[in-house]
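Lab meeting, item 3. Inverse folding demo.
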């Protein structure tokens, strides 16, 4: 009888661990999905900024200065965000 009770307790513990693992798995999948969407959005933003930067260079050759620096900062910011998300996905 004691063996049956012990087996029952172990089974309950395993079922609880399984449920916790399943819940964590679901949470992690949702996190990956959200980060993938964020990466896609940042990629589209980066593409848009790159197109704008090309337009600025084509439209005003010889000019640069502050506008180019602002555009470069924006691109660096987007790239940094993408790197952060990729690093998070790799963890």
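The presenter then showed the designed sequence:
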């Amino acid at each position: 009888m004691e063996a049956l009770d012990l087996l029952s307790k172990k089974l309950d513990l395993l079922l609880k661990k399984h449920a916790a693992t399943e819940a964590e798995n679901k949470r992690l999948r949702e996190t990956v999905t959200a980060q993938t969407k964020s990466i896609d959005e940042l990629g589209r933003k980066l593409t848009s900024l790159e197109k704008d930067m090309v337009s600025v260079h084509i439209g005003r050759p010889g000019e640069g200065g502050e506008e180019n620096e602002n555009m470069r900062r924006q691109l660096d910011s987007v790239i940094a965000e993408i790197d952060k998300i990729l690093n998070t996905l790799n963890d």
